[in-house]
Design a protein that fits this description.
Rossmann fold; 3-stranded antiparallel β-sheet; 37% helix; single chain; 12 helices
């Protein structure tokens, strides 16, 4: 069952001013998200591992009201329910496609945008469902070289994936949202983020524990680790990609991106490539600059 509550958008309410959605299916975790109609095509956004749609509000809000927006929180992220174990990439792709159909998003022009894990998923959706998207924008998508992918996959099987190990060890609770903001500011993956972007993470990727003001990661650490251990295989998807694509990477992001760009350029000639200043989360470091680059690409595609 799919539900969309009919609400009027309040720009002052921020991300929570978007209409909430819920996708319920027997035996599967509920997927929740937010959407808003626009005067032009709709942007379908998939977030990175451990994040959720609301984390990207400082970037995504800049597309409104010219574009519609649909943010779907993957299982165990944001407001969506967590399964006992990660359902796996094929199941997540199938569910994402089903949610798109249930929301009627495939009945009008749709643009796929994703970051990190969500970028790799968006690539696979575009390849496996030709015609679903008019164009895709891949923001630092996790598209590892084949040997690295194999090593990561094997490392995950034997419990030696470094990012998965770090996810299982990471701090899970804070005394309050204010304490979480103060602790995370300028540290690790959050280094360089604008205050608005970090506040969006604190507001939407943390949940209340029910113990006073205490908050915890909305995405269970074990689920985040399992996703790291099951990387998306991208290379067949690049070869089958039929719609225009923009591949954007950060100048200070992971070291495999130059190799990934070279391979993708060879197998996917319709894909454009762009580097923007910043790390893996460059859209959180300079949301306006990232928006300008994506908006320019979409204009050139007539979207």
């Amino acid at each position: 069952m799919n539900t969309t509550m009919n609400m009027t958008f309040d720009a002052n309410a921020g991300y929570l001013g978007l209409t909430p959605t819920e996708d319920l299916r027997p035996g599967q975790p509920a997927w929740r998200g937010r959407r808003r109609s626009g005067s032009g095509p709709t942007l379908h956004f998939l977030h990175g591992n451990g994040f959720c749609g609301g984390v990207y509000w400082p970037f995504l809000r800049r597309f409104l009201p010219q574009y519609g927006l649909f943010c779907s929180d993957i299982e165990g992220h944001g407001a969506s329910e967590a399964p006992p174990r990660f359902s796996g990439v094929p199941a997540v792709l199938e569910r994402a496609r089903a949610v798109i159909a249930a929301q009627g998003l495939d009945q009008a022009p749709l643009i796929g945008i994703g970051h990190s894990f969500g970028g790799a998923l968006t690539l696979r959706l575009a390849a496996e469902y030709p015609g679903l998207f008019r164009a895709v924008v891949l923001l630092d998508p996790i598209v590892m070289p084949a040997p690295m992918w194999a090593a990561v996959h094997l490392g995950g099987m034997v419990g030696r994936h470094p990012m998965a190990k770090a996810a299982r060890r990471r701090r899970n609770t804070w005394d309050s949202r204010e304490a979480a903001f103060a602790r995370l500011k300028g540290r690790g993956i959050y280094a360089g983020w604008t205050d608005e972007a970090l506040q969006s993470f604190v507001d939407h990727a943390l949940s209340d524990t029910g113990k006073g003001s205490e908050v915890q990661l909305a995405c269970p650490r074990e689920l985040e680790a399992e996703i790291f251990e099951q990387p998306v295989w991208p290379w067949g998807a690049f070869r089958r990609l039929q719609c225009p694509a923009l591949f954007v990477s950060g100048t200070g992001s992971y070291g495999f991106f130059p190799w990934a760009r070279r391979v993708a350029q060879r197998v996917s000639p319709r894909t454009e490539f762009l580097e923007l200043p910043g790390g893996h989360c460059f859209m959180q470091e300079d949301p306006a600059n990232c928006h300008a680059a994506v908006a320019d690409f979409l204009r050139r595609q007539g979207l």
